[in-house]
Design goal:
about 290 residues; two-stranded antiparallel ribbon; about 75% helix
């Protein structure tokens, strides 16, 4: 019986794409630090005894100060939900800065469309090394994916044991593997912004409801016309929760949409780069 020699396939080639290692510390450390910072701002800045006409000298975790001197210190009387909302706002700031820096690196140098045109020109001239050099200049996710595909592209030019279709599949697989490593890095931590967008308003409404409960309870205990004035003040203080929550959620939603739009543009560039490589190889190396 004649031996059957194994046919060279794309799977027999080890991928040149290396897994990216990135610290996930900010994902669990930032919420904790921001929440503690939110409490510190609420307790020691908004709740400073100097900002009230009737400070609670006993202090403690939640002093019962009365008579805020200005609007900033009046927010303190919104209750224990306020530090959570401040912490969520700080999280929006922290994760927005972190995402901006990551996505800015992923965009690389120059316009993605111009970069792809330069690579297409070099491939049309059959100058793969020059195309790889363009990827090194780009320094972005599209350049990284294109570079991985070009390395396999260069290998397939001299590969004699595979058909053109197999070579194109091998290039396409390399691009897909590189893409699978790049995209999670761009989308990481966006879940915090999307979560705050929906949860922030709910937590704010919880604070408002709790404030209303306290106000009406005080009205029932005191009674009389003077209690009505206290009720009006209590309602205004409770609504600070709503204002903080809605404002935080709105900012988180805007930034989330900005970042996802940037990621979509990068993803489109990656898809175009993969199409460029496969079509170029199929037309030039039949």
């Amino acid at each position: 019986m004649a031996e059957t020699k194994p046919t060279a396939t794309a799977a027999s080639k080890a991928t040149s794409v290396q897994a990216k290692h990135d610290s996930n510390m900010i994902s669990w450390l930032a919420p904790l630090v921001c929440t503690l910072a939110g409490y510190a701002i609420w307790r020691f800045m908004m709740g400073s005894a100097d900002g009230f006409t009737e400070p609670d000298s006993s202090g403690g975790f939640w002093p019962s100060h009365r008579g805020p001197k200005d609007a900033f210190h009046r927010i303190y009387e919104g209750g224990i939900i306020v530090p959570l909302l401040i912490g969520m706002f700080l999280m929006v700031v922290v994760f927005s800065i972190e995402r901006y820096m990551t996505i800015r690196r992923a965009l690389g140098n120059g316009a993605i469309a111009d970069f792809i045109r330069k690579v297409q020109f070099q491939l049309a001239s059959k100058n793969v090394d020059a195309a790889i050099a363009e990827c090194d200049k780009q320094h972005g996710s599209v350049g990284n994916v294109m570079k991985a595909g070009l390395r396999r592209y260069k290998e397939m030019i001299t590969e004699g044991g595979m058909s053109t279709d197999q070579k194109v599949i091998a290039i396409q697989k390399e691009v897909e593997e590189a893409t699978a490593l790049e995209l999670p890095m761009m989308q990481k931590n966006l879940v915090f912004l999307s979560t705050i967008t929906s949860v922030g308003t709910l937590i704010a409404l919880l604070g408002t409801v709790l404030g209303m409960i306290r106000s009406f309870a005080a009205l029932g205990e005191e009674g009389g016309g003077g209690a009505a004035a206290d009720l009006a003040v209590g309602i205004s203080e409770a609504l600070y929760n709503t204002a903080l929550g809605i404002g935080t959620s709105a900012i988180a939603l805007i930034l989330y949409n900005v970042f996802t739009t940037k990621i979509d543009s990068i993803t489109h560039g990656i898809d175009e780069s993969g199409f460029t490589l496969t079509q170029s190889f199929a037309s030039l190396y039949k």
